[in-house]
Amino acid sequence: MVSSVSVLLVSHDGGRWLPAVIDGLRAQRTPVDAVVCVDTGSKDESADLLDAAFAADFGAALRVSGSTSFPEAVRLGLERLRLQGSSSEWVWILHDDANPDPGALAALLAAAAADPGADVLGPKLREWPSLRRLLELGVTISGTGRRETGLERGEYDQGQHDEVREVLAVNTAGMLVRRTVLEELGGFDAQLPIFGNDIDFGWRAAAAGHRTLIVPEAVVFHAEAAHRGVRRTPLTGRHTHYQERRAALYTLLANARGRALPWLVVRLAFGTVLRMLGFLVVRSPGEALDDLAALLNLYAHPGQVRAARRARREQRPAEEHARSLLSPWWVPYRHGLDFLGDLAAAATNQAQDVAERRRVAAAAVAPASTVARPRTDEDELVEDTGIVARFLTNPVALTLAAFVLVALVGARDAFDSLAGGGLSPAPASAGQWWQLQVETWHPLGTGTAVPAPAYVLPMALLATLLGGSPSLAVSLVMLLAVPFGLWGAWRFLRVVGRLVTPTGAPRTALLWGATTWALVPVVSGAWSDGRFGVVVVAATLPWLAHAALGFADPAPDRRWRAAWRTGLLLALASAFAPVLWLFAALLGLVVVVAAFLIVRGAVRDRSVWGPPATALALVPALLSPWWVPAVQRGAAEAFLLDVGRLPSPVADGLDLATGRLAGLGAPWWTGAILAVLALLALVPRSTRIPVLVCWVVALVAAVLAALLGTGTLALAATTVATGLAALVVVLQGAFVVAATIGAIALVHDLHSWRRAVAAVVAVAAAVVPLGGLAWWLGAAENTVADGVDTDIPVYMVESSEQGPEHGILVVRGSVDEGLTYSVRRGDGVTMGEDEILALTSEDEDFTAQVRELVSRPTPEVIDALGQSGIEYVVLPEPADGGVAGVLDAATGLIQASAIAPTRAWEVDRPLDAASLEGPTSWLRVALLVLAGLGTLVVVVLCLPTTSRRRS
Known about the structure:
54% helix; 38 helices; alpha/beta; globular; 951 residues
């Protein structure tokens, strides 16, 4: 008995594919009983083509509005069949972009006859127009909503999947379904207007006990016009990915088991966040927003899912069978690993492309004899096996390795916890840094709303990545600062060398310049004194300069990429040295003025001035959660201060020229040699222009330092000088680059009478890094390893760590010379809290209470101490006898044990924790959110593109 079949073809603006589809349908070896065509508001000739092909035999196409969904079109087609009195057993559904092979229907019916229990059958789908690439052989869905085909990307059809098997679902493009089953299940879900209805229908069919087979012998060529965005409809709009993702989430939520639904709701929400991050990493923000919109659409309308689940509740006798056809649980994790692999491959390929361009550029200027011989297999073998040999026979590589080892030995104190000098102890956990970053009111001292310094965020991120240990994060930064700066300086100077001369800089010059730059934070004294911000800036500056070189790239898109990278690195460096942004802004102004005077037309080109302007603007935007509240709270002095404990070292003119901080660091004459070498670099004519550029940078830094050095900053506790340490680093970096460029000219222009001069200069230059290393290994006094002594009894410190209300009032000095006070809370002043306390204005009411406490303590004063969260009063040695006597006689103060001559008293009053609570600044909360999103976007714009859809 031959089965009867009716064809149901749905079209919408498919005029470009319909002629071939009509020919394919007419060429079927098995006749059909009826052809019902439903056209959903086509604006092209689709409906006319259908009428011309089938109206004479089966009636005109049913024309409906363009907003008609695919499920509704199928329902209207079935109704047309009933009105025509058709009694066909099967319905073959086709799309207007799905061209069936002449034997497709015959193969499907043959499989149905061979397996009478099959109710839904689907063909093998190949890509149209390639005709050989596989698209689907049945589909299923993963626990995260991903459409799973079981095929590799771009897999060609070689018969490797040609076996009939049961699947969860088949595509509606070529689906052969028993008419009774289609009507029994209510057709396709109206909540899935265009995408995902095939998987939902297959899942419902399997749960109802029906079987779905894939028949590879039947072939249909599918253009996937809607999925690929080739065709826009009122149903897809401009956001195809949104519709696809919403359909996937709806299918999972509507068909999942009841007991798994709560977990699925949480999993999909968390998974959407991960997917958004993945899309942002590959620079596809539109798809990330589509994912979020799809999730919010469903979660904001739970009634849709509830109605769907009620409709399915009575049709699930074979639910376990349907679950067995779903994708395995581990598939999403495999896709995650694949994504990470793709990202790593993209970054590697990008680096290889850059290296290849540089190799080609070098080969273009090299002598013909060096590039004429082609590479052979033997060359490849030698290259693969000779890496170690080349390393051991390369003096530059050995010298660099030895330098790194010596630098690690010099930084050996960093293998332990660091504190001392300008470096406060690290907090106990990364959570304390995160809390300091996000809270808008800090229970420090008497309470303050001064924001946390900007560097707290990157340090909290690093500590979190290292397992939540801030101490390890600080030690790692101090340990690797010199090697990291060496790496960045080598990359930067190598590019500078290629810009100066086609053959590039000699490796000996690069070696000297990179090692000298890497030692700047050491020989300046910043490392040994614990000036953490200077160390980070010195290690970051060569990477920042390397990124800024992209502004000179001929391609506009590369200049904009340089803008994002430069802005992000400048923001990072400015978080540790705020004055660095002022320098960058002043330098940018000088460059714009010079460009206007030299090349006026370039200033009119937005792709020329736009990238550097964007890089500069990114810094205040990304650091807005710090500087905006700082200005609000009267703490704008933070822009001109070095980070760390005050007072910071003061740099005079000689210190700026020699790269030293207030007498700290290596002998000044080693820095003077570097300045002289930079000055001598102006002599060779061939490289005078780039050296002049370096001197312009140095002069801008010197002028800014001179302007800032003329004033002082009056803080609540003391008066300090402005922080110039970052400008010292900039000056030294400019000198290093200038001297390296001069060395390039000297090596390439060695006449006989200049050889002696070159030898003298080389010896003098070698003294700079060698002398700095020798001083660091031997004579340097690392106060950063001394720790921070405390003269407060241990049991009081332990009590203060129980909560901020267990504060300790520490009064120092004498009545004759003046008394000062501080309030210790928690684990004391840690990194990040120094700047907050230094910039907090004086609490005049609390100062008046302390003044009255040490002169005429009344019960009201003692009550006020308890209400302010003060548990102990301590007079460290040498304690003033007069003050101690006054406190001994005070009612409400109980003498506490302390090692003489330190005196201590306990406040015998209830402690009030609520007194340290302050108002929430919603402005800062909003700035934190916006800056976090902005940072994420900038990081994405800095990354390579690996979007599969774009590729």
